[in-house]
Amino acid sequence: MSKKIVTKEAANELLEKCKNEGIRVPTDHTNALIQAGIVLKTTSEKDEFNWDSALNAMTQEFGVLKIGKEHKTSDAKDEGKSELKPTKKKKPAKATNPENQELSEAFTELAGFEFKRGERFKGMANSRAAKSIRDTEEKIESGDVAMHLKGIGKGSAKKIDEFLKNGKIEKLEDYRVGNMH
Question: Per the database record, which ranges form the Crossover junction endonuclease MUS81-like HHH domain (predicted)?
């Protein structure tokens, strides 16, 4: 069997182990396989897969699934305890102009999805747009007007107009329902 096929099967097995251990993985299966393959290659020793190291690396990279308001800690798993630790929900930063709050939060959430997809540059662009929207004292009334702010380009301006017209950004709505393509 070729090394590529073995690695792909091992990546599927690692994803299954992650599922059983409550470890988060990317929602897009292809991306999840790629990430699992990378982790397996970086944690393997002498061409043998080190499953414990791979699971720890996946936990560090993606975190654990929430169970209600709590989640398993990796330390508790390692020590054989079933200790649960509460998770903290991060509060969104307050916009200088409260009328821009929802728009800023939409861009922040969109940035988070882009980072999860591995789209670092799109994630940074949306993060910069969210910060600019959050920090401006003026009410954002159109994408064209917002383009004078640092971090707002043509793409962000289109999303701003879409949000102001429809109350949502279609790409963000797609990500929310799991369409990460």
Answer: 99-168
Q: What is the DSSP track for 59-97? A: HHHH-B--BTTEEE-HHHHHHT---EEE--PPPPPPPSS
Q: How far is Cα 127 from Cα 157, in angstroms, rounded to an integer?
A: 14
What total of structural domains would you count in the chain? 2
Per-residue model confidence as pLDDT tens digits over 97-121: 999 999 999 999 999 888 888 889 9
8 A C-beta contact, residue 15 and residue 25: yes
Please choose, from the candidates 87, 47, 46, the residue with its C-alpha nearest in 3D space to the C-alpha of residue 63: 87
State the catalytic residues.
159
For 14-24, what is the mean pLDDT? 87
Same domain for 82 and 12: yes
Identify how many contiguous H helices and E strands the chain contains and give both numbers: 9, 2
Q: Model pTM?
A: 0.53
